[in-house]
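pls design
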Protein backbone atom coordinates (compact mmCIF):
# COMPACT_ATOMS: atom_id res chain seq x y z
CA UNK A 1 0.00 0.00 0.00
CA UNK A 2 1.27 3.46 -0.84
CA UNK A 3 0.25 6.82 0.56
CA UNK A 4 1.19 10.35 -0.50
CA UNK A 5 0.17 13.40 1.54
CA UNK A 6 -0.55 16.43 -0.63
CA UNK A 7 -0.28 20.12 0.23
CA UNK A 8 -3.80 21.52 0.61
CA UNK A 9 -4.93 24.67 -1.16
CA UNK A 10 -5.20 27.81 1.03
CA UNK A 11 -8.99 27.52 1.40
CA UNK A 12 -8.50 23.96 2.73
CA UNK A 13 -5.38 24.69 4.78
CA UNK A 14 -6.56 22.78 7.85
CA UNK A 15 -7.55 19.70 5.85
CA UNK A 16 -5.51 16.55 5.30
CA UNK A 17 -5.33 15.30 1.71
CA UNK A 18 -3.89 11.90 0.82
CA UNK A 19 -3.83 9.63 -2.24
CA UNK A 20 -2.29 6.26 -2.97
CA UNK A 21 -2.67 2.68 -4.12
CA UNK A 22 -4.41 0.17 -1.84
CA UNK A 23 -3.04 -3.21 -2.90
CA UNK A 24 -5.26 -5.41 -0.69
CA UNK A 25 -8.41 -3.72 -2.05
CA UNK A 26 -7.04 -3.36 -5.60
CA UNK A 27 -7.91 0.31 -5.89
CA UNK A 28 -6.48 3.80 -5.87
CA UNK A 29 -7.83 5.95 -3.07
CA UNK A 30 -8.22 9.64 -2.31
CA UNK A 31 -9.27 10.99 1.07
CA UNK A 32 -9.80 14.51 2.37
CA UNK A 33 -10.49 14.95 6.08
CA UNK A 34 -11.06 17.90 8.39
CA UNK A 35 -9.34 17.03 11.69
CA UNK A 36 -11.07 19.95 13.43
CA UNK A 37 -14.46 18.22 13.21
CA UNK A 38 -14.72 15.80 16.12
CA UNK A 39 -17.69 13.80 14.82
CA UNK A 40 -16.32 11.80 11.90
CA UNK A 41 -19.89 11.17 10.68
CA UNK A 42 -20.74 14.88 10.59
CA UNK A 43 -21.15 16.73 7.32
CA UNK A 44 -17.80 18.11 6.18
CA UNK A 45 -15.69 15.79 8.34
CA UNK A 46 -14.65 13.80 5.28
CA UNK A 47 -15.44 15.84 2.15
CA UNK A 48 -13.94 13.16 -0.07
CA UNK A 49 -13.27 9.44 0.35
CA UNK A 50 -12.85 7.83 -3.04
CA UNK A 51 -11.84 4.19 -3.30
CA UNK A 52 -13.59 3.05 -0.11
CA UNK A 53 -16.83 1.78 -1.63
CA UNK A 54 -15.74 1.60 -5.27
CA UNK A 55 -12.73 0.37 -7.23
CA UNK A 56 -10.66 3.03 -8.99
CA UNK A 57 -7.97 1.82 -11.37
CA UNK A 58 -7.19 5.05 -13.26
CA UNK A 59 -4.80 7.50 -11.52
CA UNK A 60 -6.39 10.38 -13.46
CA UNK A 61 -9.69 9.82 -11.63
CA UNK A 62 -7.96 10.20 -8.27
CA UNK A 63 -6.03 13.28 -9.37
CA UNK A 64 -9.11 15.07 -10.66
CA UNK A 65 -11.00 14.19 -7.48
CA UNK A 66 -8.44 15.89 -5.22
CA UNK A 67 -7.59 18.78 -7.56
CA UNK A 68 -10.16 21.11 -5.89
CA UNK A 69 -8.50 20.47 -2.52
CA UNK A 70 -4.74 20.30 -3.03
CA UNK A 71 -1.74 21.23 -5.15
CA UNK A 72 -1.06 18.49 -7.70
CA UNK A 73 2.61 17.60 -8.26
CA UNK A 74 3.57 17.31 -11.93
CA UNK A 75 4.71 13.73 -11.48
CA UNK A 76 1.74 12.51 -9.40
CA UNK A 77 0.17 10.49 -12.24
CA UNK A 78 3.46 8.71 -12.92
CA UNK A 79 4.03 8.17 -9.19
CA UNK A 80 0.63 6.55 -8.68
CA UNK A 81 1.07 4.38 -11.74
CA UNK A 82 4.47 3.28 -10.47
CA UNK A 83 2.94 2.41 -7.09
CA UNK A 84 0.50 0.05 -8.74
CA UNK A 85 3.13 -1.44 -11.05
CA UNK A 86 5.50 -2.03 -8.13
CA UNK A 87 2.99 -3.48 -5.66
CA UNK A 88 0.73 -5.33 -8.09
CA UNK A 89 -2.82 -6.56 -7.55
CA UNK A 90 -4.61 -8.71 -5.07
CA UNK A 91 -3.95 -10.16 -1.68
CA UNK A 92 -0.62 -11.64 -0.77
CA UNK A 93 1.15 -13.26 2.14
CA UNK A 94 3.95 -10.76 1.66
CA UNK A 95 4.13 -7.65 3.78
CA UNK A 96 2.48 -4.55 2.38
CA UNK A 97 4.47 -1.37 2.80
CA UNK A 98 3.46 2.28 2.65
CA UNK A 99 5.87 4.31 0.53
CA UNK A 100 6.01 7.95 1.43
CA UNK A 101 8.68 10.44 2.35
CA UNK A 102 6.61 11.84 5.25
CA UNK A 103 8.83 13.11 8.06
CA UNK A 104 7.56 11.30 11.14
CA UNK A 105 9.19 13.93 13.33
CA UNK A 106 6.23 16.16 12.47
CA UNK A 107 3.76 13.73 14.06
CA UNK A 108 1.61 15.53 16.65
CA UNK A 109 3.05 15.09 20.14
CA UNK A 110 1.19 13.05 22.70
CA UNK A 111 -0.68 15.03 25.34
CA UNK A 112 -1.26 11.89 27.41
CA UNK A 113 0.50 11.41 30.76
CA UNK A 114 3.95 9.91 30.32
CA UNK A 115 4.14 7.90 33.53
CA UNK A 116 3.70 4.13 33.49
CA UNK A 117 0.15 3.06 34.25
CA UNK A 118 0.56 -0.63 34.98
CA UNK A 119 0.78 -0.27 38.75
CA UNK A 120 -1.96 2.35 39.07
CA UNK A 121 -4.88 0.52 37.49
CA UNK A 122 -8.09 -0.07 39.44
CA UNK A 123 -8.15 -3.75 40.35
CA UNK A 124 -11.42 -5.65 40.26
CA UNK A 125 -12.42 -9.29 40.55
CA UNK A 126 -12.80 -11.17 37.30
CA UNK A 127 -15.75 -13.54 36.82
CA UNK A 128 -14.93 -17.18 36.22
CA UNK A 129 -14.68 -18.55 32.72
CA UNK A 130 -17.84 -20.24 31.56
CA UNK A 131 -17.99 -23.66 29.96
CA UNK A 132 -18.48 -23.88 26.24
CA UNK A 133 -15.86 -21.31 25.26
CA UNK A 134 -15.39 -21.06 21.49
CA UNK A 135 -12.68 -23.46 20.30
CA UNK A 136 -11.08 -20.58 18.36
CA UNK A 137 -10.07 -18.99 21.65
CA UNK A 138 -6.24 -19.01 21.85
CA UNK A 139 -4.45 -20.33 24.92
CA UNK A 140 -3.32 -16.79 25.73
CA UNK A 141 -6.96 -15.89 26.49
CA UNK A 142 -7.89 -18.83 28.71
CA UNK A 143 -7.48 -16.62 31.79
CA UNK A 144 -10.04 -14.11 30.53
CA UNK A 145 -13.74 -14.23 31.49
CA UNK A 146 -16.29 -15.07 28.83
CA UNK A 147 -19.87 -13.95 28.31
CA UNK A 148 -22.05 -15.94 25.97
CA UNK A 149 -18.97 -17.79 24.76
CA UNK A 150 -17.12 -14.56 23.85
CA UNK A 151 -13.93 -13.48 25.60
CA UNK A 152 -14.27 -10.21 27.49
CA UNK A 153 -11.35 -7.99 26.29
CA UNK A 154 -9.13 -6.62 29.05
CA UNK A 155 -10.05 -3.02 28.17
CA UNK A 156 -13.83 -3.59 28.24
CA UNK A 157 -15.52 -1.22 30.67
CA UNK A 158 -17.24 -2.68 33.74
CA UNK A 159 -20.55 -1.08 34.70
CA UNK A 160 -21.32 0.03 38.28
CA UNK A 161 -23.43 -3.12 38.79
CA UNK A 162 -20.45 -5.33 37.87
CA UNK A 163 -21.54 -6.24 34.36
CA UNK A 164 -19.19 -5.83 31.41
CA UNK A 165 -20.29 -3.67 28.47
CA UNK A 166 -19.02 -4.99 25.15
CA UNK A 167 -18.00 -2.15 22.82
CA UNK A 168 -17.22 0.34 25.62
CA UNK A 169 -13.60 0.95 26.62
CA UNK A 170 -12.19 1.48 30.12
CA UNK A 171 -10.31 4.79 29.87
CA UNK A 172 -7.64 3.82 32.42
CA UNK A 173 -6.88 0.53 30.70
CA UNK A 174 -6.91 2.21 27.29
CA UNK A 175 -4.09 4.48 28.46
CA UNK A 176 -2.18 1.54 29.92
CA UNK A 177 -2.40 -0.37 26.65
CA UNK A 178 -1.22 2.57 24.55
CA UNK A 179 1.62 3.73 26.81
CA UNK A 180 2.78 0.41 28.26
CA UNK A 181 2.34 -1.59 25.05
CA UNK A 182 -0.20 -4.00 26.50
CA UNK A 183 -2.58 -6.08 24.39
CA UNK A 184 -6.12 -4.72 24.63
CA UNK A 185 -7.59 -8.26 24.52
CA UNK A 186 -5.50 -10.27 27.00
CA UNK A 187 -3.93 -7.38 28.93
CA UNK A 188 -0.43 -8.85 28.72
CA UNK A 189 2.66 -7.00 27.43
CA UNK A 190 3.02 -7.05 23.67
CA UNK A 191 5.79 -6.17 21.25
CA UNK A 192 6.46 -5.65 17.57
CA UNK A 193 4.73 -6.50 15.38
CA UNK A 194 1.69 -4.77 16.87
CA UNK A 195 -1.71 -5.48 15.31
CA UNK A 196 -4.43 -2.82 15.16
CA UNK A 197 -8.08 -3.01 14.13
CA UNK A 198 -8.67 -0.02 11.83
CA UNK A 199 -11.43 1.28 9.57
CA UNK A 200 -10.92 2.73 6.10
CA UNK A 201 -10.88 6.27 7.50
CA UNK A 202 -8.33 5.23 10.15
CA UNK A 203 -5.99 3.73 7.57
CA UNK A 204 -6.25 6.84 5.42
CA UNK A 205 -5.10 8.93 8.40
CA UNK A 206 -2.84 6.24 9.93
CA UNK A 207 -4.51 6.85 13.29
CA UNK A 208 -5.69 3.76 15.19
CA UNK A 209 -8.51 4.59 17.65
CA UNK A 210 -7.89 1.42 19.66
CA UNK A 211 -4.74 -0.07 21.25
CA UNK A 212 -2.56 -2.84 19.80
CA UNK A 213 -3.13 -6.59 20.03
CA UNK A 214 -1.01 -9.72 19.87
CA UNK A 215 -1.35 -11.37 16.44
CA UNK A 216 -3.15 -14.39 17.94
CA UNK A 217 -5.52 -12.15 19.95
CA UNK A 218 -6.22 -10.09 16.84
CA UNK A 219 -7.01 -13.21 14.83
CA UNK A 220 -9.48 -14.32 17.48
CA UNK A 221 -11.11 -10.87 17.64
CA UNK A 222 -11.48 -10.67 13.86
CA UNK A 223 -13.58 -13.84 13.87
CA UNK A 224 -15.34 -13.59 17.26
CA UNK A 225 -16.15 -9.88 17.63
CA UNK A 226 -19.53 -9.22 15.95
CA UNK A 227 -18.47 -5.73 14.85
CA UNK A 228 -15.12 -6.72 13.37
CA UNK A 229 -16.45 -9.91 11.79
CA UNK A 230 -19.27 -8.04 10.04
CA UNK A 231 -22.09 -9.44 12.15
CA UNK A 232 -23.43 -6.01 13.13
CA UNK A 233 -24.92 -3.71 10.51
CA UNK A 234 -25.01 -0.68 12.87
CA UNK A 235 -23.31 0.58 16.00
CA UNK A 236 -25.22 0.13 19.26
CA UNK A 237 -27.72 2.82 20.27
CA UNK A 238 -25.62 4.58 22.92
CA UNK A 239 -22.35 4.62 24.82
CA UNK A 240 -22.02 3.01 28.23
CA UNK A 241 -23.32 5.16 31.08
CA UNK A 242 -20.03 5.07 32.91
CA UNK A 243 -17.63 7.99 33.53
CA UNK A 244 -14.68 5.62 33.07
CA UNK A 245 -15.72 4.77 29.51
CA UNK A 246 -13.76 6.03 26.54
CA UNK A 247 -13.79 5.60 22.78
CA UNK A 248 -17.01 7.33 21.71
CA UNK A 249 -17.98 9.42 24.77
CA UNK A 250 -20.57 11.50 22.92
CA UNK A 251 -22.13 8.51 21.14
CA UNK A 252 -21.25 10.08 17.77
CA UNK A 253 -21.33 6.67 16.09
CA UNK A 254 -24.57 5.49 17.74
CA UNK A 255 -26.97 3.87 15.26
CA UNK A 256 -24.69 4.70 12.31
CA UNK A 257 -23.91 1.96 9.76
CA UNK A 258 -20.97 -0.24 10.70
CA UNK A 259 -17.63 0.42 9.03
CA UNK A 260 -15.43 -1.95 7.08
CA UNK A 261 -12.52 -3.07 9.25
CA UNK A 262 -8.95 -4.20 8.58
CA UNK A 263 -6.15 -5.70 10.63
CA UNK A 264 -2.97 -3.64 10.32
CA UNK A 265 0.44 -4.97 11.38
CA UNK A 266 2.97 -2.30 12.43
CA UNK A 267 6.50 -2.49 13.76
CA UNK A 268 6.06 0.63 15.92
CA UNK A 269 3.54 3.32 16.90
CA UNK A 270 3.30 6.56 18.87
CA UNK A 271 0.60 7.29 21.49
CA UNK A 272 -1.15 10.56 20.60
CA UNK A 273 -4.34 12.49 21.16
CA UNK A 274 -6.38 12.35 17.95
CA UNK A 275 -6.98 15.94 16.89
CA UNK A 276 -10.35 15.01 15.40
CA UNK A 277 -11.85 13.13 18.34
CA UNK A 278 -9.68 14.42 21.21
CA UNK A 279 -9.38 10.78 22.31
CA UNK A 280 -6.20 8.76 22.98
CA UNK A 281 -5.05 6.88 19.89
CA UNK A 282 -2.03 5.33 18.19
CA UNK A 283 -0.31 7.10 15.31
CA UNK A 284 1.53 4.80 12.89
CA UNK A 285 4.28 6.18 10.67
CA UNK A 286 3.88 5.13 7.02
CA UNK A 287 7.20 3.32 7.04
CA UNK A 288 6.19 1.28 10.09
CA UNK A 289 3.22 -0.42 8.42
CA UNK A 290 4.03 -4.04 7.67
CA UNK A 291 0.78 -5.55 6.43
CA UNK A 292 -2.88 -4.70 5.88
CA UNK A 293 -5.55 -7.43 5.78
CA UNK A 294 -9.21 -6.59 5.16
CA UNK A 295 -11.77 -8.20 7.45
CA UNK A 296 -15.21 -9.33 6.29
CA UNK A 297 -17.29 -6.24 5.36
CA UNK A 298 -20.28 -5.40 7.58
CA UNK A 299 -23.62 -7.11 7.04
CA UNK A 300 -25.99 -5.05 4.90
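designed seq:
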Amino acid sequence: MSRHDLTPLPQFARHEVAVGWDRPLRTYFAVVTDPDIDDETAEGATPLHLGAAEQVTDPAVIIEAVRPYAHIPDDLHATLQADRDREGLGHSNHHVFFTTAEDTSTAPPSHCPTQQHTGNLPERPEPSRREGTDSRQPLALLHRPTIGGLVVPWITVQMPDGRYRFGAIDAHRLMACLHDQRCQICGQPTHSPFVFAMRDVDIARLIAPEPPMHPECATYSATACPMLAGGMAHYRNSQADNPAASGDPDSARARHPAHRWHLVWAKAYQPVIDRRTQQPAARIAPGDVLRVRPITPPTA
